[in-house]
Amino acid sequence: MSDRIKKFAAVVFLTLLIWAWAYLSLERQVTLWGSIELSPAAGPEFLVSFPGGNTSYPVKLTFKGPPSKVSEIERQYRAALGDPEHGMLVYYYLPQDYDHTQTGTYMLDVLDFVQNSSAYHEMALTLEASEPVRAEVSIEMLTEKQLVVQCVDEKGAPLPAADLMPGQVAMHVLPDYTGPAVIRLSPQQIAAARQGPIRQRPYVDLRPAGPRRFADDEVSIALPATEQLNPYVFQPQSIGFIFSRNTQGRFRVQIENEGDLRTVQLRATEAAYAAYQRRRHHLLIEIRDEDAALTEIPPREVIFNFPTDFVRGGQIEAASSHTAVIRLIPIAPTTSP
User: Fold this and answer.
1) Nearest Cα to 299, choosing from 266, 329, 265, 322?
2) Which of 15, 108, 197, 298 could bridge 222 with an S-S bond, Cβ 3.0-4.6 Å?
3) In 3D, which of 82, 44, 71 has the Cα closest to residue 169?
4) How many CA atoms, within 13 angstroms, populate the side-chain half-sphere of residue 17?
């Protein structure tokens, strides 16, 4: 009886072993999304973009391998979707490895690129296909320059009274760039800089739509303390309009809540308040191209037409914002007799 049990157990064990071997010998396919991105080791002299000006390039990759390994990769992939820092299926492109060290457009063979990456070897799977097959890479080589640092407020108005140390920083920019390195301060940061020096890193927008590069080093910013600002209740006598090119001369503006704009509160020094009183228009309302096609224009925040020099010096500010409800009325074209 004992021998029969032992034989039966041996048969069961061998059967399970054969099944396990057969299972592991099978291969599964899985298709996952990955991305090609510039390696952090590329250096600041490289400005790299993919089609559409994007800094990463999505690719669809098909792998095959043992079911257990594919299941593990799928589990890690799902976990990475909820963790952007995980970096699953990100393949880093280092231009120097491909001798892409001149301004120009290059083509990457996606299969070859992925198969030669360290991230691929760690997966222990076979890459079967990619979509697309090739990826276009545009490279612009940047030049290191010493740039003057300019401090501005949140609307982009310069703050000439800012004391900056150092006044210049080294940054990599396009060869024809001649502008400054910018430090943009929020109202809270401006208030802090009036109490004592603060530190910020200047930046440069390499193109109008980006990307934005920050300097490696911080700059110390100090602003002079302002005079005491007095509260004023002010009644604007004139409201002006800033028409876009396509709305100029085509519409007149009707303010539906004009009564709400007849009393405003502000804080200012005596000199700044006197200068504001002398302005031709105390409030301004912007009229945009898209307003002409709207049946109902959303409430538009009005612009306080404060004297620029006093704004830069922190000597005048609105105590609260105000919005205007406006309606555009077409102006009938004149006809010659």
Assistant:
1) 322
2) 197
3) 44
4) 6
